[in-house]
């Protein structure tokens, strides 16, 4: 997608053919800065510190992290060291484990001398595949939007609510939850997006609003608490969110606050869809609430807030009374019963084991 008219992806190999360039998402929406990762340790820090974030992009960065590790030292020991350190950076998004397992599985099959080239090639392939996957999600989601818009008599504004950032900035391009919105916009459907600000890190206000604005999609940022009220007043036609890990039974883990939106949607008869690539499905898990590891982040993300001052500087300020403790879980789990459907690259599934297995029959054999 575009930033100030220039087509970009979120991650790419630098002109020197080995450094890995990323957009520094901690500077958005105020500054568009890129950074070059030159070691697996820098890739690990970028994921941990959320310079890159969003489940598919975390996976891609992990893959390039292993490529950087293989460039430095392609021994088994270094592969295992980098794998373990990268995996530990963010525990909830399963795409990271998927990408690291994919690369490690391939790298251990070849001689150390062949590992660097293979790792770079496979990391690039993972990125290209993610773009195609997101486009397919977009096409399936577009059908849902078009059908609902037509059923409602083609109103002049079709309101979609989303939480956090599951757009192209969270992936390589297009996004998951936002891909259907971009495609609806391109198809001439008058889509308007309610963008949850998504405290504490404000990925909605800073990233989703930024990328929708850059693409010209009509949107309004709302405080996280407004969704229920808007739904009660008929102002939300559809909710679409992304996910960091979805169980084999269709429970969905996503940014903290998603569960409350799903409850409000259920209570108000608003369709609540989750968009996801196959890399986000954790086939080993049954019960999302009990089994998905929920990342707990530094309370400073809650107690401090960063923004732009009147004279254009970025500043971070403390917003809590001195001495008040804060707690900061990053994700919550929405039970499958609250999910209208899972929009995948293979089509739309019921949020259930059977629903997912219909789309991914090869998983039955495992
Ligand atoms: C397509 S991205 C899906 C999720 O990763 C997204 O909704 C989300 O919760 C991102 O969380 P973040 O903590 O910003 O990495």
TrEMBL record:
It is an enzyme of class 5 (isomerase). The record marks 164 as: Transition state stabilizer. Keywords: Amino-acid biosynthesis, Isomerase, Methionine biosynthesis. Substrate binds at residues 53-55, 90, 203, 254-255. The active site is at 244 (proton donor). It comes from the Bacteria. GO terms for biological process: L-methionine salvage from methylthioadenosine. NCBIfam families: eIF-2B_rel, PRK05720.1, salvage_mtnA. Belongs to the EIF-2B alpha/beta/delta subunits family. MtnA subfamily. This is Methylthioribose-1-phosphate isomerase. It comes from Pleomorphomonas carboxyditropha.
